[in-house]
Amino acid sequence: MLLVVGSRFDAGAASLVRRWRPRCARLLTCEDLSTPGWSWDPQTPDRATMMVQGERLSVRSLRGVVTLLPSVTPAELPHIAEADREYVASEMTAFLLAWLSRLPCRVVNPPAPLCLSGSYLHPEQWLQIADRSGLPVQPMSRRVVSFMALRRAGPGGEPTSSERLGGADELVAVPIVGGRCIIAHSDFTLSPAFTGALERLAATTRAGLLTVTLRQMKDYFEFVSAVPAVDVTQPEIADAMLQALERTA
Questions:
Q1: Nearest to residue 84, comparing CAs of 19, 34, 136, 158?
Q2: How many alpha carbons fall within 13 Å on the CB side of residue 11?
Q3: Which end of the chain is more exposed for a tag (fewer CB within 10 A), N or C?
Q4: CA torsion 231→233→234→240, rounded to 10°?
Q5: Distance between CA atoms of residues 65 and 249, nearest Å
Q6: 80-113: per-residue pLDDT in tens?
Q7: What is the rounded distance in angstroms from the CA atom of residue 170 to the CA atom of residue 59?
Q8: Would the pTM count as exceeding 0.70?
């Protein structure tokens, strides 16, 4: 069985489960976490049981897991008393972090302390790792602006993100799944050396799912940012995720 950990409100997660139905894919939501029947001991994680869509299952039945839920938020818990939602959300997030970290099967995008679906890094950290991976990076600077200075500047006093990036240059997104760039159907091409640097970036951050934003200036590309997520509604990305699961299952 393949397991997708996601939000009950995420249409992408639902579409992924439908696409993987021949592989016995199931969706695990926060509602399942509230269902009696769970058991887990960090000393013997392979003996754990879980509740998925009302059915109690052994984690030994799992062949692979992908997580599309960065964290549990109170909005995910309408079935919990409103006064308790924030506390329950933090407890569920902590449990999922421990549970996903000790599963006996392959987890395509292992959790990190600040994000259940991969490494959550500050922009400066991404730039540093990108530079070490061999990618051209855009210099970054931060400016501390006081509240009074903003008031004096008035509306429009701060540059927009497009102005900071250069405005006229085009931004392109490169998804990386299971350590491999997915750019077969893109309207741009990357050299093998550049693709290798992107894949090193993903490997360094242990990002099984990663979308890298590049700034394109004619035939020159420059790293801008990265997030540990991909558009799972794209067929080629969903197929690459399945291949990553089955390649390492």
A1: 34
A2: 2
A3: C
A4: 80
A5: 10
A6: 999 999 999 999 999 999 999 999 999 999 999 9
A7: 45
A8: yes
Average of pLDDT values for 216-223?
Answer: 88
User: DSSP letter at 159?
Assistant: P
**For residue 57, how many other CB atoms are within 10 A of its CB?**
18
Residue 239 CA to residue 228 CA, distance in Å, equals 18
Q: Find the distance separating the first CA and the last CA of the chain, reported in whole Å.
A: 11
pLDDT tens digit string along 158-172?
Answer: 433 333 344 457 999
125-133 long-range contacts, Cβ below 8 Å, gap at least 24?
Answer: 126/223, 126/225, 126/226, 127/223, 129/201, 129/204, 129/205, 130/201, 130/223, 130/226, 131/223, 132/204, 133/197, 133/198, 133/200, 133/201, 133/204
- Cα dist from 244 to 7, 88, 97, 121, whole Å: 22, 32, 21, 24
pLDDT, tens only, 104-150: 999 999 999 999 999 889 999 999 999 999 999 977 766 655 544 44
Query: Do 210 and 110 meet the contact criterion of CB atoms below 8 Å apart?
Result: no
Give the three-state DSSP class for 101. Answer: helix
Distance, in Å, from the CA atom of 233 to the CA atom of 204, rounded to the nearest integer, reads: 26
In angstroms, the CA 228 to CA 244 distance is 16
Residues in the chain: 249
Looking at residue 160, its pLDDT comes to 39
Q: CA 185 to CA 19: how far, in whole Å?
A: 20
* pLDDT value at residue 169: 72
Q: For tokens 């959300």, what's the residue? A: 89
The whole-number pLDDT of residue 111 equals 96
In the chain, where the domains are located: 2-107, 123-227
